[in-house]
Design a protein that fits this description.
mainly alpha
């Protein structure tokens, strides 16, 4: 994956996302997942979840074969990180992932995360908002 943004921290996010995808064979939508229709159907397709369905299909596919990395990265927008702040968005995503892997229901987690670009339910996440620049009069 390659984030379309200039901030140096994006390179760290890319590195760890790519390591996660390769080492854990866990592909989220932003790292890309290509699979034949036959294998997709044999694995039961995507789980009927509003969030983490990509982690669910990765888990279903893991015992059925190996993952291979393509030579070219998937390009990912930086919009959410830019709107919500890099640290806030990264921490919120990590918090949701931790709760998912601890067994929390994806439907419940989806209430905490909106699919609208840049929207994170700030009442639910205990992460401070980034400071706003001073406004001139």
């Amino acid at each position: 994956m390659r984030i379309l943004g200039r901030h140096p921290f994006y390179r760290s996010i890319e590195f760890f996302a790519n390591v996660r995808a390769r080492a854990l064979r866990l592909a989220y939508g932003d790292t890309g997942l290509f699979v034949s229709a036959d294998l997709f159907r044999a694995a039961g397709g995507y789980p009927e979840w509003p969030i983490f369905e990509d982690a669910g299909i990765s888990a279903r596919l893991r015992p059925r074969g190996r993952f291979r990395a393509l030579p070219h990265p998937i390009l990912v927008s930086a919009r959410r990180w830019e709107r919500q702040g890099i640290a806030r968005t990264t921490l919120a995503n990590a918090w949701l992932q931790t709760r998912y892997f601890a067994g929390e229901n994806p439907t419940r987690l989806a209430r905490l995360y909106s699919t609208e670009p840049g929207a994170i339910d700030t009442a639910t996440f205990p992460i401070p908002a980034p400071p706003r620049p001073p406004q001139s009069s």
